[in-house]
Amino acid sequence: MVGNVFDLVIVGMGSAGVTAAEFAARLDLDVAVVERAKVGGDCLWTGCVPSKALLASARTAHAMRTADRFGIEPVEPTIDLARVWRRVRAVQAEIAATDDNPQRFRDLGVEVVIGDARVTAPEEVTVSTADGGERALPTRFVLLCTGSRPHVPDIPGLPRGATWTNESFFHIDAPPAAMAVVGGGPMGTEMAQALQRLGVQVTLFQRAHTLLPREDEGLASRLAGILQRDGVTVHCSADVRRVTSHGAAHTVHATVGHDGRDVEVDVGGVLVAAGRVPNVDHLGLDELGITVGPEGIEVDEAGRTNVRTVYAVGDVTRGHDLTNAAGYEAVVAVRDMFFPGRGAADGTVPRCVFTEPEFARVGLTVPEAEARFGENVDAWRLELDRNDRARTDGTTDGGVVLVTAKGRVVGAHVLAPHAGEMVHELAVAVHQQLRLDDLADVVHAYPTIAGAIGQLATEAAYEKAHRLRWLMKKRPTR
Asked: Is the Cα dihedral 190, 85, 321, 28 positive or negative?
């Protein structure tokens, strides 16, 4: 530290904080990070990593159960849920011991401080340590990366000890034989399918009229059908009114649909996946006059708050609520603090729901594009049953939707195996404002699922050529 003043103090060591700390350290800045629990944040301990590890086990069980689709004798897998949960924790421990090890950051020159932080001045963070003491960290800049926590709706009777969120669900020994999932967003949808495939009877309650209401509605409806074929009972337009308990047994009471029919489901537990709340409490923001809205800390395009020296990125802001976005926003913020000019994070952030098939998206939906561009919007669709790789792999239930405005790609939606890998080509198209002709000019490997993007772009080019056929050279007359 120069004059006992840090260049940067980072509060929170989740995805955004980890990225910011490493980037700033490699710039030879004097950096301190404050973490109240464990390095890695929601992504490692309660979000992306454990959920994807669970999905991997579920995918294997489903492949065994449905092997007859490929001419192989199917077998009902013997599933040891406690062993599956132990594997989830082993994957977390491996990552925690390597990439997210606090010592790795100390070796980079970052000072790691454990405790609860609050911003006590525009250029100071004060940490309450575990021993009851306090430590002031003077700094040129502050970066808040405190993330978010699960929103638990006010449902009367939610059973203590049998109601979980993502913060507690991966710490149990094993789930019960029957569960209700409240919420049909990314986590609720992923966990409903995974649990069902692992032998848990799942009923999914979604308040909106469709699963994943922020995504393409047609593809979301297709995904709901896939979950139902897996055995999940899906109730959309559902309002969970209360839960009654009888010893270790619980009954979920809900009103479903426009006709208000009552549904009662007996379960062993409830997983709540009903959105997130930004972690803005006890940070001292009100005292500094930092503006906080209902969706989190309000920041500009570089992550700066209305207090010049204080920045915020990731889930604690009105951002994308995505791990990949949080890391990117952290880099933009650090760059804006210490380099000339003004940084800016744009909206080209792909997202993926890791069901099977995966559901990936970048850019605008059709309604969003129409609201922005009016009548100059087209939607181009290709069903996966027209893709040869999907046919060979028996994964034809899905599709690709490309959204163009004035001929340029402004949105893309993919329901397909490995859609999360496919979406990056489409993210480049949205970011660079490419035309479908530009995608058609890329010769895709054959046979691949990603080739569906080339198929769709080529068909659009064929349609354009058909409209311009009057320009064709005429056959010479003899």
From this structure: negative
